[in-house]
Amino acid sequence: MTPFLEKLRQLYPSDRLYEDEARLTPYVSDGLTVFRQKPVAVVMPLDSDEIVATLKLCHEFSVPFVARGSGTSLSGGSLPIDEGIVISLNRLNQILSIDPDNRTARVQPGVINAHVSSAVVQHGLYFAPDPSSQSVCTIGGNLAFNSGGAHCLKYGMTSNHVLGLKVALPDGEIVHLGNDSLENVGPDCVGLFVGSEGLFGIALEIQLRLLPIPESFRTILASYESLEAAGEAVGTVVASGILPGAMEIMDKLAIEAAEAAVNAGYPRNAEALLIIELDGEAAAVEAEFTALSTAIEQTQAKEIRIAQDNEERLLIWKGRKSAFSAVGRLSPDYLVQDGVVPRSKLGEALKEISRLGSEANLHVANVFHAGDGNLHPLILFDGKESGALERAENLAGKILRLCLKLGGSITGEHGVGVEKKSFMPEMFSENDLEAFKRIRQAIDPREISNRGKMLPGNEAPALSHSGPHPLEQAGLISRM
Questions:
Q1: Measured between alpha carbons, how far is 232 from 346 in angstroms, rounded to an integer?
Q2: Which domains does the chain have, with CATH numbers?
Q3: Rounded distance, CA 400 to CA 480, Å?
Q4: pLDDT recorded at residue 323
Q5: Cβ contact 86:36 at 8 Å
Q6: Are 54 and 171 in contact (CB under 8 A)?
Q7: Dihedral Cα 375, 318, 150, 217, nearest 10 deg
Q8: Is 357 within 8 Å of 366 (Cβ atoms)?
Q9: Cα–Cα distance for residue pair 238/292, rounded to 1 Å
Q10: What is the pLDDT at residue 403?
Q11: Residue 477: predicted pLDDT
C-alpha cells in the first residue's frame, strides 16, 4: 500500500488527502450507521482529470475505491471498503449548463438535488425526483441508487430524468452514454448505469431532464382510524383512474415525530394519514380534484383537510419529509427498510408488519410512498440494550421476506448496498445473479469499484438479520 499512497500524495495536497484518524472518522459510515469501516485514505478531487488520475492509480495497484457524495445512503452503499479509499465528490458541485429551450441541465455529481430546481426555477422548470434528503443528497448518489421520492408515482425515478452521462470507468477510461434527447438508439447504457450502486465507475457529468413547474396544485390530507384503512383508501383512489403527483402514508408514530419536529398541524388523534397531491394544468387539476374528493369520501376517512394555500401545502410536505430524521426524537436508534409490495397488497402488508412488530416487542413507525407500494418501516430500538439490534435486524429481515412473499421487491430506492446482499438470492435466481456478475466483471474485471456491494459474496459485511455478524465478532467491523 505504501507505493500507492506515495503516488496518491503526489496527486493531492495534504488539505485534500485525508489519512489521519480525525479527518477519516466522518467517513467511516454512511446513513446506515450500524456499520463502520475506516478507509485507508479519503481524497477530494476538484475536477474530472483528478478523478481519472485517481482511478488509473487504483487500477494499477488494484486498490478498491468507493465514490461518495453526502453519505446519505441508507443501505451502506457508500460504506468504505477495507484497504480501500474514498473518493469524495462534494467539490464537483457545479451546474455546468442550463438549456431552458430543451429543458435540460448538465451537472457534476456533487451537485445537491434541491440546488438543481433552485437554479432553473427562473425558467419555470424543476428537477422532479424529490427524495426526503433532497436538501443534502447529491445527484451522483441519486444516480447510483435510482432515487425516487414522494412524486415518483407520476414522474418516475431518477432513471426517467437522466438523458446522458460522461463516465469514468474503473480503469480511468472515459465513455459517453446516451445523449441530450429523449430518444436513444441502441442499448440503454444509461439505464444500465443508473442504479448500479457504483459498480461501474463514476459519473463525471450528468445530463438531466427538467420539467415545467406545474401550473396548479391541490393537496388533500385525510386521517384514518387504522393504517390498514389508509392502505385500502389508496386502492380506492387508484381504482378511480386518478393519477396523483404523490400519495404518501404516515402512521401514528411518524405523525407524532413530525409534529414534534416541525409542527405541521397534523391531526394528533389519527392512527394514519394519507397525503394526496394533484398537479398539472389548472383545469385538469380541478376536474381531478372533484373526482378525488368523491373517491376519498367513499373511504373510511375520519377527517379530510384541503391545503388552502401554498404555505399550508409546503408545511404538509415539510412534515412528511422530516419524518425520517424526526423519528430520532422517539428512539435513540432505528433501522429503516424500503421493501416494495403491489398496491393491492398494502393493507395486508401493513397488518402483517404490525403483527411482526408486536411479536418482536419493537415499535415500528411507517412512512411510505403509498402510490407505488414502497414501504419505509422504521424499526425503533435502543442499541444499548443487549440483543436489541439483533432483534431489530431480525424483524427487518422478516419484513423484506414479507415483501417478496407478496410479490414485491427488497428495495425501491435505497438500494442493496451491503445491507440487503444476503437477500439477493431470495429475489433472483442463480442464473440471474451470474448474469449480473458477468456484466460487472466485463466492465470492472478487478472489481475495485465499490467492491463488496450489491452482489452476494464475502468481500464486505452484510446484515445477517440473525445476530452479530461474524466479521464483527472477529473485530473487523464495529457498530455504532
A1: 7
A2: 2-88 (3.30.43.10), 95-212 (3.30.465.10), 216-326 (3.30.70.2190), 331-473 (3.30.70.2740)
A3: 23
A4: 85
A5: no
A6: no
A7: 140
A8: no
A9: 10
A10: 96
A11: 36
Backbone angles phi, psi at 102, to 5 degrees: -95, 0
Give 22: exposed, middle or buried? Use CB within 10 Å, 0-12, 13-18, 19+.
exposed
Say how many CA atoms lie within 13 Å of 360 toward its Cβ: 27
Residue with cell 457504483: 198
Please report, for residues 139, 197, 372, the alpha-carbon distance to residue 158 in angstroms, rounded to integers and kept in the order given.
9, 13, 15
The single-letter DSSP state of residue 394 is H
Residue in this structure with the C-alpha cell 444509461, named with its chain if needed: 190
> In a 3-state reduction of DSSP, which class is residue 254?
helix
Q: Give how far the C-alpha of residue 49 lies from the chain's centroid of Cα atoms, to the nearest Å.
A: 28
Q: How far apart are CA 308 and CA 288, in angstroms?
A: 17
Question: Amino acid identity of 447?
Answer: E
**Tell me, what's the pLDDT at 476?**
33
CA dihedral 126, 127, 128, 130 (to 10 degrees): -110
Give the model confidence (pLDDT) of 216-256 as tens digits: 999 999 999 998 889 889 989 988 999 999 999 999 999 99
Beta bridge partners, 275, equal 221, 248
- Rounded to two decimals, the pTM is 0.91
* Sites in the chain below the pLDDT cut of 70: 458-480
Longest C-alpha distance within the chain, in Å? 70
Cβ within 8 Å of residue 303, ≥6 positions away = 222, 223, 267, 270
Across 267-336, where does the E strand assignment appear? Answer: 272-280, 303-306, 333-336
**CA–CA distance from 319 to each of 21, 72, 208, 306, 402 (Å)?**
37, 19, 28, 15, 28
Q: Could you give the CA distance from residue 57 to residue 40 in angstroms, rounded to a whole number? A: 14
Beta-sheet strand order (sheet of 364-369): 303-306, 216-224, 272-280, 246-251, 364-369, 377-381, 333-336
What is the structure's pLDDT at 65? 98
> For residue 472, what pLDDT is reported?
42
Virtual torsion, Cα 265, 268, 269, 274, nearest 10 deg: 60
